[in-house]
Sequence to fold (402 residues):
Amino acid sequence: MAQPTYLTAREAAAELGVSRATLYAYVSRGLIRSEALGDQPRQRHYRAEDIQRLKQRKLLRRNPAKAAEQALSWGVPVLESGLTLISNGHLFYRGRDVEHLALSSSIEDVASLLWTGEIGATLPERAEAESHTFPSTNFRREGLAAVNAFQAALLQAESQDPAAFDLQPERVAQKGLSILHLLARIAASREGKAGAGIANIMQSGWAPSRQEAARLIDTALVLCADHELNVSAFTARCVASAGSSPYSVIIAGLAALQGVKHGGVTRRVQALFQEVGSPGRAPAVLSGRLKRGETIPGFGHPLYPAGDPRARLLLELLRNVATPNQLDLAQAIARQARRLIGEPPTIDFALVCLARALEFPEDAAIMIFAIGRTVGWLAHAIEQYQANVLIRPRARYSGPQP
Fold:
């Protein structure tokens, strides 16, 4: 597990721009946590995350306009949510460590947890039956890209659902499970067996001879289910706050997800694999990218300085089922990226590794991302429906004056 980072008293005081006496006062008031340094009780270190949080609070008091501006870019929280916490290098869904959930729970279990607050809650039994009244595989046959196929199917499903705007939590959960089945069937390009789970439907279409693939898909879906207030989740909440249907919420989330700075990073990672081609070319290709001022996609996450725990877990599991030949290229790219930029892989890189190693369809990585994240979007929608507040920030005008 990633350990919290600490600052010395001198570093902490300098970071806050205060005296040591003021620093000690913050500690006594419970604003900053401190711990003894080794066996020297008089030598103490101070939690770096507490220092940063206090700096943000001071900024908010001194310059509310500036704080609001920064809040939209990895800044101070802009709304409350009881869904997801990112802290000390770990990810939690409703207080439960996601790595543990991914190893022990299905995506249906996690949907229950995020939508109802209880991992053992029974979701509506009619949901799977209802999902089969909606269109499915024909959208892939029409040649639409994966995310666009999902959006087209959801538009049609909404038009066929007379209760599309029933926004009660239990009804949204029922629609949510129907939608997950629908998207899984589109991804797999087949209907799937009656009673099959989401991951099993996808495995039956992508790797029918590899039963172990279903467990890996389920794990990946759980790891992708939510990630606090990312751009697609914020988009989903804004749409939900307007009173739009759950279908529209997911369509909007998908529109944000496929952007090249969000879930679309998986496509850039795929292109990187194709550009490198063989393990021996990794040093030259990655160095060449840096020389041209280009990035190395799939490495480094602002919220996980010590490494993305979702990627770490998925790659560890993948090593147990993939052959060395299937992972040689991925490992060569990861090693060279670490040497050049000092960054570990993100979930985007891990999803592409999973799809390549198990020979899934080319766009499988973003489909896993999208289907998993659908759970989170609907959880945010349920919270927003219950809050019954329109999200409507103000803009600071910077154009010509009238």
Notes: Residues 364-387 form the longest helix (24 residues).
